[in-house]
């Protein structure tokens, strides 16, 4: 019996994106016939720098998550990409890995696969939407992928009685100063909904995405 494969790949500094990635993987895995794989973008900072940032200890939470490979991307029918916001764009670690995808781009290996994104920022207006639109969307389009967001059928986008991430562009977390605020249940529910939505659409569209010849 064939399965639909969903890859959730992330870069996290203090754990907020990791927790959101877990929620997305949980949502995707709740769809019948779906196999989920969790992977992380390689770290480019030294342990010395991470220690000064106060991030080295946090990273032990996901140390056993394997680094993403090109084979993971080819295996997947749908891919959710996660990165914290860095001045309104994706983290350098994510961009560094993206710049290795020239071979997959040249061979049209990712054309027709579903793509989705999630992010986090310290403040409520810290560039979450620009990170997805400016950082991830061009990647998806250049690779020929089909973009999936977080639709308004997720009711958690509407309440205004609490601080919360999440937009039609994708689920997100407001981390607070120095990452002190942990993901809320509403933010995690947004991730679960997004994961389930991605997986459902991947199952619906079926396997074997292919480029259309001229």
Automatic annotation (TrEMBL):
One GO term describing the cellular component: membrane
Pfam families reported in the protein's UniProt record: FMN_red
Residues annotated as domain Flavodoxin-like: 6-198
Single GO term (MF): FMN binding
PROSITE patterns for the chain: FLAVODOXIN_LIKE (PS50902)
Family statement drawn from the similarity comment of this UniProt entry: Belongs to the WrbA family.
Name under which the protein is recorded: NAD(P)H:quinone oxidoreductase, type IV, putative
């Amino acid at each position: 019996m064939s399965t639909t494969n969903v890859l959730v790949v992330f870069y996290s500094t203090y754990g907020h994106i990791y927790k959101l990635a877990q929620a997305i993987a949980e949502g995707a895995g709740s769809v019948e016939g779906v196999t989920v794989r969790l992977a992380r973008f390689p770290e480019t900072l030294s342990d010395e720098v991470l220690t000064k940032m106060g991030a080295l200890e946090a990273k032990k939470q996901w140390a056993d998550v394997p680094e993403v490979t090109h084979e993971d991307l080819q295996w997947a029918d749908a891919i959710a990409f996660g990165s914290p916001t860095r001045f309104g764009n994706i983290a350098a670690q994510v961009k560094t890995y993206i710049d290795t995808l020239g071979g997959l781009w040249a061979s049209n290996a990712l054309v027709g696969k579903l793509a989705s994104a999630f992010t986090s920022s310290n403040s409520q207006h810290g560039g979450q939407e620009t990170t997805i639109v400016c950082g991830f969307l061009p990647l998806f389009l250049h690779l020929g992928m089909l973009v999936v967001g977080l639709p308004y059928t997720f009711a958690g986008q509407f309440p205004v009685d609490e601080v919360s991430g999440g937009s039609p562009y994708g689920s997100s977390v407001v981390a607070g100063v120095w990452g002190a605020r942990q993901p809320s249940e509403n933010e995690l529910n947004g991730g679960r909904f997004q994961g389930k939505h991605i997986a459902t659409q991947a199952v619906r569209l079926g396997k074997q995405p292919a480029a259309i010849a001229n």
